[in-house]
């Protein structure tokens, strides 16, 4: 799918593209391609002379392949963007940017919420975008905002997990659910940190290359400051995640210790009855007066029951059964 945007009175307006002729009749500032087909790739190459990278090239993580200038002067960047999905775990989508002929070309496999938000804001805020470089910086700034919102969501989810972990009755089933929730939030927090690191590298590359004017350079510095503040927040969330993980594992150990304690108390309490049964089970001839008693058997049973109840009473009184 190909989306073409032109600047009109400081607004970023989308132009519908159905055929190659439609693309030839516009002067775009941004050409956004989501999972483009072969025809759309051919149109871009024929009209603008830009060869779009393939999916394998987009995902190349080598530093030399992520930021470089081609022989024809086109500037290529590869940047990761966070994608949260309602029906599955979050993931990172790599976007290929090409800056050529005062236009921004972007290629990605998924429709990203950051791109939708930039398009919506550009239409509602006249004068916020002046050229293709402003579009790119706005994408990076919006990506930082999107990551900040995701971090707020992580904090809220961790608060819910914390309330469950610190409740009075915390079963092993509750612990398993808490561990699963904590693991998901830890994974998302790690992806956000990786995403911010990659955005920092991309913005720093633009600043070092002297590709920005004075206003754009100051905006890039503000983006880097926002990312630095997000780094501190991700570190805080990692500490909170580790605390909740340790607390959950600790409660699991406590529950297991309770079970072990019950078995230990039971084994100690049944030692005296076992001893009595063993004594009266011996078949030695000689002086064994209880063998001649008519009430010897009830007496032995009563003695075993009493010897079993006495330890339980003592343990309960000392609070060892709680």
From TrEMBL:
A GO cellular component annotation in the UniProt record: plasma membrane
Q: Which protein are we looking at?
A: Magnesium transport protein CorA
Known function: Mediates influx of magnesium ions.
As for family, the record states: Belongs to the CorA metal ion transporter (MIT) (TC 1.A.35) family.
The record's subcellular location field reads:
Cell inner membrane; Membrane
A GO molecular-function annotation: magnesium ion transmembrane transporter activity
Pfam families in UniProt: CorA
Q: Which organism is it from?
A: Rugamonas fusca
